[in-house]
Amino acid sequence: MTADMNLDHKKNPSGKKGRASSIDEYVGARLRQRRTLLGMSQEKLADAVGITFQQIQKYENGANRVSAGRLYEFSNILEVPVNFFYENMQSMNEKVGAMGMAESGQAGFETQEDLVNRKETIDLIRTYYQIENEEQRKDLLKMIKTMVKNMQTA
């Protein structure tokens, strides 16, 4: 991460050191997103790193911080680079900051990140990649884009 990333570094409500912050919540949400996309249970991920599934829940909810070493383990198991857990964090923080809390997800505003985390979206992606033939996948995507285009012109 660059030094100029002015992310939500607010002190935690308790003001105590070592408590999770909004950055930890974001990392936890990305952890949950990737685990879910792979169809992996909290129990399976926990077993892979030698912790309890309750600890995974705490990480995913942002209640506990994920250490650098643990994040590296997760990146290997979930087959993503470590920076995956921080991707788009700055832009998401800027959007919420610009909108204010009243317009953020807390008030029914659905961000692109919210859409990606929906069960329906994850099921669609998983099913799409189960189509082994690349040409068929591309044809399906083309068909969906055509349907959307036709709906917009109707």
Share in β-strands: under 5%
pLDDT averaged residue by residue: 79
Strand elements, count = 0
Estimate the helix proportion, in percent.
55-70%
Task: Outline the biggest β-sheet.
Answer: none
Task: State the distance separating the first and last CA atoms.
Answer: 45 Å
Shape: elongated
CA radius of gyration: 18 Å
The SS-based structural class is mainly alpha
Question: What's this model, at a glance?
Answer:
The protein is an all-alpha fold. Helix content is 59%, strand content 0%.
Report what the structure shows.
The protein has 154 residues and is an all-alpha fold. It has helices at 22-37, 42-49, 53-61, 68-77, 89-99, 112-116, 119-130, 134-153. Helix 1 (22-37) packs across helix 3 and helix 2 packs across helix 3 (53-61).
Ordered list of secondary-structure elements with their pairings:
Elements: H1 22-37, H2 42-49, H3 53-61, H4 68-77, H5 89-99, H6 112-116, H7 119-130, H8 134-153
Features:
154 residues, mainly alpha, 0% strand, elongated
